[in-house]
UniProtKB/TrEMBL annotation, chain B:
It is a multi-pass membrane protein. This is ABC transporter permease subunit. InterPro entries: MetI-like (IPR000515), MetI-like_sf (IPR035906). It holds the Pfam family BPD_transp_1. The keyword Mitochondrion does not apply. It comes from the Bacteria. The chain crosses the membrane at residues 7-29, 64-88, 100-118, 124-150, 234-255. It is found in: Cell membrane.
Length: 379, 269
């Protein structure tokens, strides 16, 4: 066993997991497939059940229903320490009375790994994480970033096939968080374990994960690659959650004639989703934005305005800001138009949006959001 | 605070301090001077250690010390073990009747132990343990105060540390021993000092349940000594008193820093 060789991760499969506490339902029939060696982020607002789900996978919490399979084996009834996984907690959960070295080797000592083997592995982990100079210190004498590394060290030293992380970066400052994101991802690739990573920060999820599981109210909203999540959100919630600023989700009628036609075609009320970066000012269009304000960000600016009655934000170049009260015509590439059923919230593929938009007098600008249906496959 | 206020507070404190230490000063004075100087306070009184030698020779103090030492050690160990286990259960486990049981434990804090002396004596007699050190220790080993104190401390240990240790393969007792107990060290120190000093000084119960030299702790030994043979020779009695409280006094002076600190820290947490 060597830390620098790729150890094999195990696939994880959640089947119909539910969790109730008295009358409150924290998780509702959650089923997820996590391929071996992949990095999966559980993303969602606070209270959506993502941490509970992680604790159920770890075995620290029992599910009220459903099964947890790790490496094809049903571990639902197995205690946490038999599931062969490691975990990094939001608070790092370092033992304050133990030195860094003792913290990292805690698990090896409880599992009675011989002293020489412990020392050898500790050396490797300390090298890997750059902790060599701090081994004899107590956690309280370390900076937040160093404490974070110690927690990582404790998680990776046992070389478990599965690693769970519960918002591990949320206590770090912005700059450190960015470097740690890269490091964590590199570490996971290098060691090859299967990672489940809980976060409420979409940037973390999008930048690090192979698969993002977006959760809301104890249910899975969408499980997809980061790109698919951004380019083809399955629900209005997913559309609003991913992207900064979030996608504009407005009643289709706010698009004027085009919207009415789309609704007539679909035979039901629709919501239209437009990314701020998908809307472009142009020479002339039936789609007109009356500007109410603008936020200058440097490279670009966020322009707030109204389409009909709906509030909309768009991203415009920073050098030519429209003044409040102006009306600007907007172009929209047909493939940047997302449509959702207003009642069920499901995504609806527009049948022929291109000709429809042109007929309605909305020119197709450059695609703001990268073309969803061309370069790569998604599901 | 005005200057006058501070002056008033300071002199009040000094006055109270003097009042408190006066008996101790008197005991030291009489113990190190010959008997004639019991009530004559002159600076040129001759110093002597004869009183200590006399007291030591007059009663089996060495045996009494051994008894007391055995007693407080046994009580301390028993209390640490029982209170730790009970406090862990109350702090971290959910079981039927937990809150009722804990209320009963708290109730024990309200009951003066002296009320139970007769009942305790009957029980000890039934067990056939009268006049043993076990009999002195037994009623105090399950301490409600200790359970309460340790439970409060254990509850301040973050649940995530418990979870982390569990993931790393530590069993229930291993978690208790390797996570909770080390983190509660200040509480153990404070509680240990209180327990030792209390049982070192305890008098009424040992007086009742013991009646031989082999089991008597120093407090009872001292009272037997001062009432029977030596009449009212204050210098010898005070020398014996200083001798019996000496170890505790020294221990307190040695530990006083940690003692006060740990109580303060226990409060802050």
């Amino acid at each position: 066993m060597s830390l620098t060789q790729t150890s094999t991760g195990r696939a994880i499969r959640l089947e119909g997991i539910s969790k109730t506490w008295g009358d409150t339902r924290a998780l509702h029939d959650v089923s997820i497939d996590i391929p071996a060696g992949s990095f999966t982020a559980l993303l969602g607002p606070s209270g959506c059940g993502k941490s509970t789900l992680l604790r159920i996978v770890s075995g620290l919490e029992q599910a009220s229903g459903g099964r947890v399979l790790i490496g094809g084996q049903d571990v639902s009834q197995m205690p946490a320490d038999k599931r062969e996984l490691s975990m990094v907690f939001q608070s790092y959960a370092l033992f304050p009375h133990l030195s860094v070295a003792e913290n990292i080797t805690f698990g090896l000592r409880t599992r009675k790994v011989p002293r020489d083997e412990r020392a050898k592995r500790l050396d490797r982990v300390a090298d890997l994480l750059g902790l060599g100079d701090y081994l004899s210190r107590k956690p309280a004498e370390l900076s937040g970033g160093q404490q974070q590394r110690v927690a990582l060290g404790r998680a990776v030293i046992a070389e478990r096939p599965v690693c769970l992380m519960d918002e591990p970066l949320s206590n770090l400052d912005a700059k450190l968080r960015q470097t740690m994101r890269t490091e964590l991802r590199a570490l996971q690739r290098e060691l090859g374990f299967t990672m489940i990573y809980v976060t409420h920060d979409q940037v973390e999820a999008i930048t690090m994960a192979d698969q993002v599981v977006l959760m809301n109210g104890g249910k899975v909203e969408q499980a997809a690659s980061p790109r698919a999540l951004y380019e083809r959100p399955a629900t209005p919630f997913a559309a609003r959650f991913i992207g900064t600023p979030p996608m504009n989700v407005i009643p289709a009628t706010a698009l004027g004639e085009a919207g009415a036609k789309l609704q007539a075609q679909a035979g039901r009320r629709l919501l239209a989703g437009l990314r701020p970066e998908a809307l472009h000012p142009c020479a002339d269009s039936a789609l007109r934005l009356s500007v109410t304000g603008a936020e200058y960000l440097g490279a670009d600016a966020l322009v707030q305005g109204r389409l009909g009655v709906a509030q909309v934000v768009l991203r415009a170049p920073g050098h030519a800001l429209p003044a409040p009260g102006e009306t600007i015509p907007l172009a929209l590439a047909p493939r940047d138009l997302h449509l959702f059923d207003a009642e069920t919230g499901g995504r609806i593929p527009p049948s022929d949006p291109a000709s429809l938009l042109v007929q309605a007098g909305i020119p197709a600008g450059p695609t703001g959001a990268a073309a969803p249906f061309i370069q790569h496959e998604d599901h | 605070m005005t200057r006058f206020d501070r002056w008033l507070a300071n002199s009040g404190a000094i006055l109270l301090g003097l009042l408190w230490i006066l008996p101790l000063l008197y005991a030291i004075w009489t113990a190190v001077h010959p008997a004639e100087y019991e009530a004559r306070f002159v600076l040129d009184a001759p110093l002597t250690l004869d009183n200590f030698a006399k007291a030591w020779a007059a009663a089996p103090f060495a045996r009494y010390f051994l008894n007391t030492f055995t007693l407080v050690t046994a009580i301390l160990i028993g209390q640490f073990v029982l209170c730790t286990l009970a406090a862990y259960a109350f702090a971290r486990y959910r079981f039927a009747g937990r809150d009722v049981l804990f209320a009963l434990v708290l109730l024990q804090l309200l009951v003066m132990p002296d009320i139970l002396i007769v009942e305790n004596y009957k029980m000890i007699r039934t067990l056939g343990l009268v006049d043993t050190i076990t009999a002195i220790a037994l009623p105090y080993i399950a301490s409600g105060f200790g359970v309460f104190l340790l439970r409060q401390t254990f509850m301040t240990v973050p649940q995530e540390l418990d979870d982390a240790a569990r993931i790393e393969g530590a069993g229930t007792l291993a978690i208790l021993w390797r996570v909770y107990v080390p983190l509660a060290k200040p509480t153990y120190l404070a509680y240990g000092l209180v327990s030792v000093s209390h049982h070192w000084n305890n008098f009424l119960w040992p007086l009742i349940v013991t009646n031989s030299v082999e089991t008597r702790p120093v407090t009872v030994g001292l009272s037997v000594f001062s009432t029977t043979d030596s009449g009212i020779e204050w210098s010898v009695i005070n020398a014996a008193t200083l001798m019996t409280s000496g170890p505790l006094l020294i221990a307190f002076l040695l530990f006083q820093r940690q003692f006060v600190q740990s109580f303060m820290r226990a409060g802050i947490k």
